[in-house]
Design goal:
The chain is α/β, with parallel strands linked by helices. The protein folds into three domains: 133 residues, HUPs (Rossmann fold); 117 residues, Serine Threonine Protein Phosphatase 5, Tetratricopeptide repeat, CATH 1.25.40.80; 174 residues, DNA Cyclobutane Dipyrimidine Photolyase, subunit A, domain 3 (Orthogonal Bundle), CATH 1.10.579. It is 48% helix and 7% strand. Helix 4 runs parallel beside helix 5 and helix 12 crosses helix 17. The protein is globular. The model has no long low-confidence stretch (mean pLDDT 97). Bound molecules: flavin-adenine dinucleotide. The site of flavin-adenine dinucleotide has 29 residues, from helix 10, helix 12, helix 15 and helix 17.
Amino acid sequence: MSNNYERTLVWLRRDLRLYDNRALAEAASRSESIAICFVFDTNIIDKLHDKDDRRLTFIHDSLAELDAALRKRGSQLIVRHGDPADEIPALAKAIGAEAVLTNHDYDRYPKERDAEVRKRLEEEGRTLHTCKDQVVFERDEILNNAGEPYKVFTPYKKAWLARLRETDFAELGESKVDLSGIAPAEELAAHSHSWQLEDLGFTRGNLWLKAGQSAGRERLCDFLGTIDRYKDERDFPAKDATSGLSVHLRFGTVSIRECFREAMKHESKGRETWVSELIWREFYQMILDRFPHVRDEAFKQEYNELEWEGGEDRFAAWCEGRTGYPLVDAAMRHFNATGWMHNRLRMVTAMFLAKDLLVDWRRGERYFARYLLDYDFASNNGGWQWCASTGVDAQPYFRVFNPVLQSKKFDPDGTYIREHVPEIQGFEKALIHWPHDAGEMEQEMAKCSLGKEYPHPIVDHFEQKEKAIAMFKRE
Ligand SMILES: Cc1cc2nc3c(=O)[nH]c(=O)nc-3n(C[C@H](O)[C@H](O)[C@H](O)COP(=O)(O)OP(=O)(O)OC[C@H]3O[C@@H](n4cnc5c(N)ncnc54)[C@H](O)[C@@H]3O)c2cc1C
């Protein structure tokens, strides 16, 4: 972007912060005056099932913090409610912005939406400029020697890290935002719609973490204090050992560049592993961008026609956390109550649905999409396809987690299970992972009658594992 402008409009989407924001920094440095807006996109929010959707509350609260910060500077956020293809060009015209700046998104609908916004702006002599912001390397910036996108994570990660070093870490530099040119509130107020959740047709959802850019930064800062222990402790759901930053990364209330910058100051295995997880996030964004068929289909297309035998009853038992497999049930119940699930448990529950219950992974993917507070299409789809063995660099189909061994390994004392499946909490450690071995006396002592208070196992893991392998072999 070389032009300078009198006024630009910055359109926030998954970058709800006023610092280290590429589009905002660019706009501020190229124009005399800037205005900042957010559109509650009716093409998205009208499709949400739940009136108390936590994501809407998170966005609302994050915007409220930005609005308050802008008001302290005599400006305000402009918030609209509608179809961005109408709202953005209309707003740009109304406030006299010559250009609109926004940050890239890699999913199909946002790409189509942005193309339409661009077209409509150009029809009226305005411009849309877009910047890379939510990942460090995007699209085709990391390619293999044949000039193609990587389909295996480890070489991608190596190439990603090599590129970062070659460019002397320039991509991690902070995009400093100078807000001195922010337009005064008097010029913007009339263009904002009212945006209380009720005005949008929603109610408050329960949040288990604070929304907004200051909370995002605080969480990063707290996590950095324990990052060196991350590798050893991250797989234990009863420990608070992961960053909990996925929600902030999803909505951009933390800067991905700041996450990498700060992490790189540490020298430990914990840091290496955490950085690797952040690169997985970039890998899946790249996959979604380059292989958009993953939106509806298996990455490995030979697995599109698998015959999933699992029906409604199994799916319902999984959703409600009554499969008779304690770790799976604990994870699903905790998830239903909060919209949060630990990574180890996402893997266990997803693999259980696909390979023990033999239910089409896409049903589980959609269930997660409905409730996950950190729901991100690329990572959710990547994670599900990894577990279901249909994805890019996925688990081989014959590898099936044993949910009871996973439980013994990652929740050894049963602390997590006891918290979320209270009806079995009276069983001693030896039985908590598989209470079905309990005799009558043990059930009496634990005050839990199996088949009554807690369900018998819905399937036999070993039988199902064989069936899953046979299903894949048939293809
Ligand atoms: C079936 C399944 C579904 C998933 N759905 C989502 C989703 O919708 N949104 C989402 O952000 N993550 C998803 N993940 C990835 C991962 O489970 C979460 O990112 C992680 O649990 C979030 O916790 P954290 O922020 O404490 O992560 P940390 O362990 O602190 O990791 C740091 C960050 O790295 C990224 N990350 C970590 N693991 C992965 C991974 N496997 N794939 C991609 N990025 C990763 C996340 O942005 C995360 O915040 C899914 C994984 C699976 C197996």
